[in-house]
Amino acid sequence: MSTRQPDDASMHGTSSVLRRRPTIADVARLAEVSTATVSRVLSGVAKVSAGKQAQVLRAIEQLDYNPSDLTRAVFSGRSTGVGVLVADMRNPYYVDLVRGVESVITEGGGLVFLANGSRDPERQQAVLRAMDAQRLRGLVITASRGIDEGIVRRMADRGAEIVFVTRPAGISHPRIHSVRVDDEAVGALAWGHLRDRGRRNVAVVIQSLDTVTQRARLRGIRDAARLDGVDLGDDRVVELQSLDEPALGLNAVLKARGSAGRGPVDAVFAATGIGTLRAYQELVELGVRVPDDVAFVGFDDFLWAPYLASPLTVVTQPSLEMGTRAAQLIIDEPGTAVEHVLAPGLTVRAST
Question: Mind listing the GO molecular function terms for this protein (predicted)?
């Protein structure tokens, strides 16, 4: 015959049954009011008599009732949470961006929910649906492709402030905003620096021509070069075949002399963070000397950029400020669509 061993709770004279979290029904029962009255007190959007309000507040204190964020969302129409949908967590740019969002939202008592879209449209849609179900106060989106505009618009219709970061919003709605760097200025800045270094035969490495931001950066460097009498044709543009492999097409561009009157490539501009990594990786594997053979300008300032054999010159975007501005738009609820376009910067190192 077995005997039951006392657990720690019973040995200390307390119930072995864990105390459950009090509910709105418990508050209503103790306050002797309806759950609807409790919800009105919690939301603060409807009048409740002073007597009943006092009863509810006493019951809340006595029960130590703390409504979940989702419960608040049910009562008020939205929660205090803010979502951040990141396109690809492998890009260190998003670290400072999320820090910027979090610094503003947590100061106001909110919570930031971070999700990685992994550049997968199906996964991104699943994340959007889940965040929509949480009735978030706002959502910051960094993904440039594969976003279901119907879900985004529905969230905005329901009161959420939506901020696209790194790209134009592309959706007309008073609650849908944008915070981005001036992408054409990114390309122009890269060209001006390389030109001043005496490099005019530039190859451009991009991730995809399908994204509006990268098309704008390519347009920016081409327009700036054209003003100096230089044509950066399609034969000088390399599109990544994979985000996980070196920029394999760069080798052929480096070897080609291009059209008549142009010499071989003497500089490379990588227009994205991942493009910077993959282009530099390919140059190293090809044995190209940077900057002796080819000068190199990347995009986004990686922590390791200053410590390479040829520390990288990079065009930068103010990621921390972009995060804080996006979060402030959510807090401010401006009532009309807002677009912040920030100027890029340039950090010059030995690669040029």
Answer: DNA-binding transcription factor activity; transcription cis-regulatory region binding
